[in-house]
Design brief:
5-stranded antiparallel β-sheet; 87 residues; 5 strands; alpha+beta; 2 helices
């Protein structure tokens, strides 16, 4: 029984060591938010983070601005080409 627990422990430690670089250095995500306003116009912004808050979405733009948009009025898309085109 002790040998089985030791093997499980060694496998768990090895898996943790192998996954550590992935957890500490996640790949950068190039996210954009397409926002639809009530007058029918649309806007596209580069975002660095988002989070659901009740019935809304909290967005953090790459320039530091924070917006709270209704969940029905925003689409979050991963688009690397849009990020490259804006630089």
């Amino acid at each position: 029984m002790k040998k089985i627990l030791l093997v499980i422990l060694v496998v768990a430690v090895t898996a943790a060591i192998c996954l550590l670089p992935i957890i500490l250095n996640p790949a950068p995500r190039h996210l954009i938010a397409k926002i639809r306003y009530f007058d029918g116009s649309m806007d596209t912004i580069r975002i660095t983070g988002y989070s659901p808050v009740g019935g809304s979405i909290w967005l953090k733009a790459d320039d530091g601005h924070i917006a709270l948009i209704g969940a029905n009025n925003v689409m979050i898309i991963e688009d690397e080409e849009y990020w490259e085109g804006c630089k």
